[in-house]
């Protein structure tokens, strides 16, 4: 168990840095690593993806607070955007968690692999928005929040992989997009975690120390490290060339997606 906890601490350290650096919540790293580790632990296959998604979502509650607090101190959180998108985010994420709880592990893995490849392409393409493009109104932000929330729950992320490109597309600065995305990750994580706990509460056969679909040993290890390393990621985001880092991260996503696809085949 000690070795397993140390592995989770390592995942959390990486996730925290990525949360602060790119505003992504760390789920794209945490989910596949949880899948590999839970498989190694001998957890029944039909529960592995649900546990990975739920635990990733729960960890983002803590990572996002550490990350957006550090971004807020640098004036990089657009709070008007957060307020307008929050209701749609919460509703979409809860519904997405309910949907994911009823899908098979194989199906959820397939969705996650497709999402990894899509995000790798988006990061490498780095398309620039039209100069005249701005954020939509309240109804538009509610709809966008719904979409981001549903997808976030299905793939266990804090929404940054969708919200950062969306805000860049609407001509927010890179630092504002990353900082605001980190803040948006908090309501996503709260709603998603509640959804996974409620839907997994009566499920038989889950490993010991599970709270619904949230696996507590993994959550503790990940949170212990990620909360400490998220501010480091923020400092890096404000000092390193983010565009180059996005391309490196895109390669990482493609490699992880290929590894998971191979496991499915």
From TrEMBL:
Keywords: Cell membrane, Membrane, Transmembrane, Transmembrane helix. The chain crosses the membrane at residues 6-35, 47-70, 76-99, 106-124, 144-170, 177-198, 210-233. Belongs to the 4-toluene sulfonate uptake permease (TSUP) (TC 2.A.102) family. This is Probable membrane transporter protein. It comes from Desulfobacca acetoxidans (strain ATCC 700848 / DSM 11109 / ASRB2). Its main location: membrane. It comes from the Bacteria. It is a multi-pass membrane protein.
């Amino acid at each position: 168990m000690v070795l397993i906890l140390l592995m989770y601490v390592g995942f959390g350290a990486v996730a925290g840095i990525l949360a602060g650096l790119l505003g992504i919540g760390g789920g794209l790293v945490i989910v596949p690593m949880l899948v590999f580790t839970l498989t190694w632990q001998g957890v029944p296959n039909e529960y592995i993806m649900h546990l990975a998604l739920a635990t990733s979502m729960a960890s983002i509650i803590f990572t996002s607070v550490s990350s957006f607090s550090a971004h807020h101190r640098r004036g990089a959180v657009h709070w008007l955007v957060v307020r307008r998108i929050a209701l749609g985010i919460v509703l979409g994420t809860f519904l997405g968690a309910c949907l994911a709880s009823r899908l098979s592990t194989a199906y959820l893995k397939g969705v996650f692999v497709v999402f990894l490849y899509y995000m790798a392409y988006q990061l490498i393409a780095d398309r620039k928005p039209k100069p005249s493009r701005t954020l939509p109104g309240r109804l538009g932000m509610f709809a966008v929040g719904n979409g981001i929330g549903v997808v976030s729950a299905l793939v266990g992320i804090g929404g940054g992989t969708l919200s950062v490109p969306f805000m860049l597309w609407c001509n927010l600065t890179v630092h504002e997009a990353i900082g605001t995305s980190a803040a948006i990750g908090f309501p996503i994580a709260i709603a998603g975690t509640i959804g996974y706990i409620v839907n997994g509460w009566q499920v038989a056969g889950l490993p010991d120390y599970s709270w619904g679909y949230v696996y507590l040993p993994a959550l503790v290890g990940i949170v212990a490290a990620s909360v400490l390393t998220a501010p480091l990621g923020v400092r890096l985001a404000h000092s390193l060339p983010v565009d180059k880092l996005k391309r490196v991260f895109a390669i990482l996503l493609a490699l992880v997606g290929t590894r998971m696809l191979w496991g499915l085949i």
